[in-house]
């Protein structure tokens, strides 16, 4: 019994002593791999990075899409050849990378064998960790297939829907256009050109109305609706002709060179003049406080036409009158008109909130600069939202004549203005002025180059006769075509 136990112990010790270990342990280390743009063939030397599919510090696996590059011939999706973490993007979207240039840095983990020193046999047994095959720790790999950057990889087919040069793609990206939304390119082989992107932007800027919209008229437009409906009660008489404003325009350079300081914009320099006419005595006519809304730097033809029109109105009291009462047709009372001492002229003014007709009162008492200042103030108040025109600009009784300067907007020469109740007894539309060659009335002599403007009148035929309107227009002509007459009365 004793001898058997001794043999067993000796045998076990001999068994352990007969083995010695040289274990191979697996160790991991981090390595930064630079991923370079490989040659994708067809003689391409550079590509534009269109889009990165990964972000910084993102984890990627092999064959995960990294980025999309575009050459002049095709668009290619680049996938990752490594497992790891993206630590740096070396090329930004929209930049061009040369073949062989690094695109990004990927941090990977590599496994290697760490040699352990061999231990000699001893009398004591050595307990070893079981050897584990390296393949047991390796993740399951997909079936082997060539990487897109491998020379044996089949070339990618060009995507016809995004075939464009880097410059066109850059232009589309600047304009916020996704080329995949475009149907087809107009270039060779369906390639997108810059004009395709511009055409897409034009079509996008004008979207079609999907359905009808019902919009209620605003307060100002509804007032115009009612006024124009009432205008059907007025029998209109129309009269059109032209005015020669050549001499009026010849006066403008001199008048613009001497705009009063109260109407001029503030000068850049505030230093006083080196020589003053009031060095001995103070100025008996100090410049009043200036209204910024009345400032202007250039006098136009309209104030001079209004001034000459007011002179004609002074000669024709009928056109300084307004209808004061319209009795019931069944009564025996007769209508009355009120003749005003001064020329009150209303101006048709289009504003963001609708059509208004502010009134210039006493135009015959103002000079051309004052009229221009009042017009500028009306325009400034009318452009505000809501409209800032008040009772001082829009008196209740309005003007006796209305002027619509339609020529300032379009190319029209004539119009058919509509007279509304309470809008006076006549309205005139001033068209676009144009240069024409005029033949003398007697047909003798050379033609002359003259600046003419078309005027279109509509008058209330209940009050104004056709002959009276024609004669009144001729009176206006005598002032407008001979503005020298204003000098005698002070312009």
From TrEMBL:
Alphabetically sorted, this entry's keywords are: Acyltransferase, Lipoyl, Mitochondrion, Transferase, Transit peptide
Q: Does the keyword Metal-binding apply?
A: no
Instruction: State the Gene Ontology terms under molecular function.
Output: acetyltransferase activity; lipoic acid binding
Catalytic class of the enzyme: transferase
Region entry Disordered: which residue ranges?
131-160
Q: Peripheral subunit-binding (PSBD) domain location, by residue?
A: 163-201
List the GO terms this entry assigns under cellular component, sorted alphabetically: mitochondrial matrix
- Which ranges carry the Lipoyl-binding domain? 32-107
The keyword Transit peptide is annotated on this UniProt entry: yes
Q: How far does the signal peptide extend, from start to end residue?
A: none
Q: Which cofactor does it need?
A: (R)-lipoate
InterPro entries associated with the record: 2-oxoacid_DH_actylTfrase, 2-oxoacid_DH_E2_comp, Biotin_lipoyl, CAT-like_dom_sf, E3-bd_dom_sf, PSBD, Single_hybrid_motif
Q: Which GO terms describe its biological process?
A: cellular respiration
Which Enzyme Commission number(s) are on file for it? 2.3.1.-
Predominant localisation class = mitochondrion
Q: Where in the cell is it found?
A: Mitochondrion matrix
What is the similarity comment for this entry? Belongs to the 2-oxoacid dehydrogenase family.
Checking PANTHER family in the record gives: DIHYDROLIPOAMIDE ACETYLTRANSFERASE COMPONENT OF PYRUVATE DEHYDROGENASE COMPLEX, LIPOAMIDE ACYLTRANSFERASE COMPONENT OF BRANCHED-CHAIN ALPHA-KETO ACID DEHYDROGENASE COMPLEX, MITOCHONDRIAL
The name this protein goes by in its record: Dihydrolipoamide acetyltransferase component of pyruvate dehydrogenase complex
* Species the sequence originates in: Sphaerobolus stellatus (strain SS14)
Task: List the lineage, top down.
Answer: Eukaryota, Fungi, Dikarya, Basidiomycota, Agaricomycotina
């Amino acid at each position: 019994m004793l001898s058997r136990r001794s043999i067993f112990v000796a045998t076990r010790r001999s068994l352990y002593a007969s083995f010695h270990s040289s274990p191979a342990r697996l160790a991991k280390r981090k390595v930064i791999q630079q991923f370079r743009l490989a040659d994708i063939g067809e003689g391409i030397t550079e590509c534009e990075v269109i889009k990165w599919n990964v972000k910084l510090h993102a984890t990627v696996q092999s064959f995960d899409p990294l980025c999309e590059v575009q050459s002049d011939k095709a668009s290619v999706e680049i996938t990752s050849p490594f497992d790891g973490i993206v630590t740096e993007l070396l090329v930004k979207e929209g930049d061009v990378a040369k073949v062989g240039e690094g695109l990004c840095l990927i941090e990977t983990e590599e496994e290697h064998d760490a040699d352990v020193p061999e231990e000699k046999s001893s009398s004591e047994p050595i307990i070893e960790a079981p050897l584990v095959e390296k393949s047991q720790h390796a993740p399951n790999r997909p079936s082997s297939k060539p990487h897109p950057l491998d020379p044996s990889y089949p070339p990618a087919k060009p995507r016809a829907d995004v075939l464009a040069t880097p410059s066109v793609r850059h232009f589309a990206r600047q304009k916020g256009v996704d080329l995949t939304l475009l149907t087809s390119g107009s270039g060779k082989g369906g390639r997108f050109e810059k004009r395709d992107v511009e055409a897409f932007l034009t079509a996008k800027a004008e979207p079609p109305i999907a359905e009808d919209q019902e919009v209620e008229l605003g307060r100002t437009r509804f007032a115009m609706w009612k006024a124009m409906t009432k205008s059907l009660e007025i029998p209109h008489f129309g009269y059109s002709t032209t005015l020669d404003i050549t001499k009026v325009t010849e006066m403008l350079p001199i008048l613009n060179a001497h705009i009063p300081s109260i109407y001029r914009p503030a000068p850049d320099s505030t230093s006083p003049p080196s020589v003053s006419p009031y060095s001995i005595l103070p100025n008996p006519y100090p410049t009043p406080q200036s209204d910024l809304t009345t400032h202007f730097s250039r006098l136009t033809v309209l104030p001079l036409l209004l001034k000459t029109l007011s002179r004609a109105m002074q000669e024709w009291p009928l056109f300084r009158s307004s209808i004061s009462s319209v009795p019931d047709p069944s009564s025996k009372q007769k209508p009355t008109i009120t003749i005003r001492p001064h020329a009150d002229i209303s101006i048709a003014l289009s504003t963001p909130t609708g059509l208004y007709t502010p009134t210039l009162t006493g135009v015959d008492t103002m000079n051309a600069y004052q009229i221009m200042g009042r017009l500028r103030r009306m325009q400034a108040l009318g452009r505000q939202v809501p409209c800032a025109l008040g009772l001082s600009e829009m008196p209740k009784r309005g003007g006796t004549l209305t002027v619509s300067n339609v020529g300032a907007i379009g190319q029209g020469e004539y119009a058919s203005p509509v007279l509304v109740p309470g809008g006076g007894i006549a309205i005139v539309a001033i068209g676009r002025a144009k240069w024409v060659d005029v033949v003398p009335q007697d047909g003798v002599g050379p033609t002359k180059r003259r600046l003419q403007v078309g005027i279109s009148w509509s008058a209330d035929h209940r009050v104004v006769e056709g002959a009276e309107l024609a004669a009144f227009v001729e009176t206006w002509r005598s002032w407008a075509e001979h503005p020298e007459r204003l000098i005698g009365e002070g312009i």
